[in-house]
Model the fold of this input.
Amino acid sequence: MRYSWIDNVIIGIIELYETKSIYELYQSLSIDIIKLNKSNVILKSSEAMYQRNFFGEEIVFIRDDLEHKYEKFILAHELGHALLHTEIITAAFNKNLINKGKLEKQADYFALKLLGINIDAVSFEGYTVEQISKALYVSEKSLDMY
Done:
């Protein structure tokens, strides 16, 4: 699966903000990061949640107990939603209009590419998907495209 248009978005933001640092990108884009306990009701048992309100304010709520490298992946995934799925706020009123699986795959692709994560099949020969995801600090689901 190839998303050349997402590659172009990544190139554009790196050139515009002169950084690949996920934290610097969040700061430059004025997207707040709020860390919450994993039992907080806002997270709804997930690791993170991106939210854009009607006033254009953007926030990512993220668990406060994630390993730093995995946190970066999750933040890159949520940044993918922020940059690639600007129509979600208007479509949110009709859940039937949203192909959630497609949006998640696009955000995963964005995160992997922004962070420069590539899987060398030779290096990971014989590994399970779980072992590869832990070694690379990414979600197992994000590896479905390989």
